[in-house]
Predict the structure of Virginiamycin B lyase.
Amino acid sequence: MNRRQFLGTAAIGILAAPALLKRAAAQEGPFRVKYYPVAAGMGSRDTTPAPDGTIWFCGQRNGTLGRLDPRDGSYKLVDLGKGAAPHGVIIGPDGAPWVTEGGQNAVARVDPGDHKVTLFRLPEKEAHANLNTAVFDKNGIYWFTGQTGIYGRLDPKSGDMTVFKSPRGRGTYGMTITPKGDIWYASLAGNHIAKIDPATGNATVVEPPTPNQGARRVWSDSKGRIWVSEWNSGNVSMHDPADGSWKAWKLPGSNPRTYAVYVDDKDKVWLTDFGANAIVRFDPVTEKFNAIPSDKAGANVRQLDGRPGETWGGESGNDRLVVIQTVAPA
């Protein structure tokens, strides 16, 4: 892959490369799969679509935030700073990507125009928080998690930051917001999910029915139901806060390991299964799964996001982005 490197004051180490697009072999059903190679060794991780059609993605191993243009496969990398190891990225109300930047123990904002990086560092007493994921609430406040057992909020306008201790300690990981504005997180080590009160910052633990399930990530559907990827059990589960009910479904295969979860605009649930090296689609209406395996071993897709008709992820094991396009009603 030919690359050119540019050096600038706002974005250090910007790369561009032509994409080599492939389709996964022997795919069934109404899905089209495309792969976009990115920089070797970068550890392509979490992704998020931007309003302009591009895709932002984290390079956890080389400390960068990437921006892919799916139209031609070109991409640029923005250096986030010395020691950076970005984990999650979302688009803020300002249209900019916001990053949980674990390497510098900070929240990072990258200007989508000039790629200037602004850091909001956690308090020194919360060093090595192992920052993971984040959401913006309806008031524009940025909420984030850290696996050492913290979660917090940042006011982007004032820069004020408050960090809270998770009620059961280590494991605070995936995060989501419901259409009503309720904020939830999953605790991987704590084997539970929790609801945050934005006014007080207090978190209320909710126990899944499957013991030691390893709740890893969460995503709300349009009805405010919380979908949970269960790493240890291999389940996808659903909690309805309206009546307190739970349902759970085992992913197909002999040894599913459910990592990521994302609910699309049609309320179809997308998951990643490390056991099957696949992205899996679940239809809650029919209760049927479609497994879409990678065309390379060890894909390790750790997060999913999307936009209407497209589900995106980063193959951290292969340094590629992958998109699954829904091309016809399923």
